[in-house]
Amino acid sequence: MNAAPVHAFTVPPLIKTVVVHCSPETAFRHFTEGMGSWWPVVTHHVAPDPESCTFEAKLGGRIYERGKNGVETKWGSVLEWDPPKRFVFSWELTRSLELRDAKVEVIFTSVPDGTEVKLVHTGWEHMGEAAIPMRDRFNAGWARVFEQCYVDYANRAA
Fold first, then answer.
1. Which residue, of 38, 126, 127, 154, has the fewest CB within 10 Å?
2. Which residue has better confidence, 1 or 59?
3. Percent of the chain whose pLDDT exceeds 90
4. What pTM did the predictor assign?
């Protein structure tokens, strides 16, 4: 007896684009080194009782949260590093193995009003039927975290 054929499952990348009123160098630094200042760790975290989050700004660097008890929970790792133009990191912000291939690329481009920052979250295809609901959940999360919190911080700290 043959198994049912496996069909390719295509899910478009999640793309968010904002403009912040600072140079690409400053916008890049605010996203990476400043992450602990703008990320809403109280509402967007994995482990219980979060205290802070950190982005280790280097190739191979970790992105993680630290609980009040000192325990660190990894969110991802920096896979590509090209300051101040772009970086790519793995995204493991859930204990689910479904996100094992998720990646986030962030691109910084100079524009007349400052810097266009484009976030591209990929890696949904292997999730099957769970892909669309998971992507929708992250779409809402990035709207709050990236489009509001990061933009507010970058514009205020500029």
1. 126
2. 59
3. 73
4. 0.90
